[in-house]
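ligand=magnesium ion
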Amino acid sequence: MMITKIYANTEVDQAAAEIKLGELVAFPTETVYGLGADATNEQAVKRVYLAKGRPSDNPLIVTVSSPEMAAEYIEDFGSYGQKLINDFWPGPLTLVFKIKPGSLSSAVTGGLETAAFRMPENEVTRKMIELAGVPIVGPSANSSGKPSPTTAQHVFHDMEGKIAGILDDGPTKVGVESTIVDLSIDSPAILRPGGVTLNELEDTLGVKVLSDQHKVGAKETPKAPGMKYKHYAPAAQVLIVADKDWPQALEWAANQKEKVAMMALSTTLENSQIPGNVVTYDMGADLTSATHRLFDGLRHFDNDEPVNWILACSFKEEGLGAAYMNRLKKAAGDQFFKAKID
Ligand code: TXA
Ligand code: MG
């Protein structure tokens, strides 16, 4: 088994040297930690799929340190691309472009004529890419089927012995993966909601952005291939709880012989009668903190304090709430507490 080193954010040159050697190094971003490898080294890219246990037809994001680095692989950003890059790079926005034929290996693109590009906010990571001199592939650094990692410790848990190192720059900021926008088709479309919201995108572009995933799934428009795989499945069954349903949900929980977890806002925890068999995870003050903590909470009840059920708070599906609910619904297999007991 290989030893997985933890690099401090001052040791970025060592992390870059490993990338140049074709090794795998996990890296911080403002969304979640990614699993990095030289995107121009096919062998290294193939080992990313192995380390994650990821199906090899699910393409990888190409992570760059500047728009110029992305431009080497793209015929033309187009006016939409240019505007979005101006307003949101670096940041939690991934853009899918048609690429110059053959400019990236099919190990990266899964054989598509498009590729997804992202320039993260994290300066240490951009420095690592600059020093390596090549773009890096950057899927989330979790084992396939686990929540994306938001700390170096989460990465270590999943990847110890499988990768050369982890560049540690503390917990990530947003907590869920980037928004993906498809610009390889006529009208821009959101393939995955994330830190950049629908409203922000429409403000910048001045046109309607498709966000209904059914429309996005229409014949000629490729969905993010990753969407067909099961994601973020904790061992426990997750049930989504609407604000007003907490009293009823806790009554239900009290009658369970099994262990139940409650992931809720601080104010909900303070104002609730919490039964003895219920353990809690504090999601903080608001939607922003809840999004930041969601994956950590799910991992906590997988690894540190196993339970049979997780009751988790819901938000309106707008703004950042669209991203939060998208991830929570996947974790819950779409199960709402109310629908289950009614
Ligand atoms: O925030 C993020 O985006 C994180 C950090 C580490 O940068 N990365 C991330 O990567 O979430 P990953 O691989 O876990 O998710 C990327 C998604 C997958 O669902 C994949 O199918 C989709 O992007 N994707 C990649 N290339 C694509 C393409 N050419 N067209 C459509 N979807 C694509
Ligand atoms: Mg992922």
